[in-house]
Write a structure and sequence with these properties.
By secondary structure, the chain is of the alpha/beta class. It has a single domain, classed as Rossmann fold (3-Layer(aba) Sandwich), CATH 3.40.50.170. Helices cover about 35% and strands about 25% of the residues. It is built from six helices and nine strands. The strands form two sheets. The chain has a seven-stranded mixed β-sheet, sandwiched between helices. Helix 4 links the parallel strand 4 and strand 5. Helix 1 runs parallel beside helix 6 and helix 3 packs parallel to helix 4.
């Protein structure tokens, strides 16, 4: 008997193009992809990512920082809302808020994020701009597990994008996003189908993996 699909909760803050890429891959692969999205959460209402989820018939939830007295209360509420759907993996698909201790206590080692640079180079909010300003000849994207630092968690996979002489930040970021979408879809599918383990900074997919 085939293993049940891994349950994914996807978190979004904006247009939800990475969410759409996951939805498309799951629809195209059916059971072969190995995962299903069980809910989509956001840090604000009225974003396109939530509309995509609703069109796909998925439950959604919103946890807005401004609705809570402290960042800690928001983090606990986000953790609670996410936990209600019993995810095997939580996927940040352009989620622009940094989660806190409570969320990581529940989902550390299961929270997947993307970053538009080749970590550990150019962490933080301006990875594309920083790589361009530095004069890097190649940059790219990283899919990693989230820990309590800024873009410091164990790296799962990376994709390389060449920096062109004519690039401005927008043009370079657009090419990075194309690679990022495909890499995220590939990584989430492999984690779901094959299991994984984390040893220190190394992620082993399919080797004595667990789910």
């Amino acid at each position: 008997m085939a293993a049940r699909p891994a349950r994914l909760v996807v978190l979004v803050s904006g247009s939800g193009t990475n969410l759409q890429a996951l939805l498309d891959a799951i629809a195209a692969g059916k059971d072969a992809y190995g995962a299903e999205i069980v809910a989509v959460g956001a840090d604000r209402s009225a974003v396109a990512g939530l509309e995509r989820a609703e069109r796909a018939g998925l439950p959604t939830f919103v946890c807005s920082v401004k609705d809570y007295a402290t960042r800690e209360e928001w983090d606990a509420a986000l953790a609670e809302a996410t936990a209600a759907y019993e995810p095997d993996l939580v996927v940040s698909a352009g989620f622009m808020k940094i989660v806190g201790k409570e969320f990581l206590a529940r989902f550390g080692g299961r929270f997947v994020n993307t970053h538009p640079a080749l970590l550990p180079s150019f962490p933080g909010a301006h990875g594309v701009r920083d790589a361009l300003a530095y004069g890097a000849k190649v940059t790219g994207c990283t899919v990693h597990f989230v820990d309590d630092g800024v873009d410091t968690g164990p790296i799962i996979a990376q994709g390389v994008v060449e920096v062109r002489e004519t690039d401005d930040e927008a043009a370079l970021h657009e090419r990075i996003k194309e690679v990022e979408r495909q890499l995220l879809v590939d990584v989430v599918g492999r984690l779901a189908r094959n299991g994984y383990s984390i040893e220190g900074r190394k992620v082993h997919v399919g080797e004595h993996g667990h789910r």
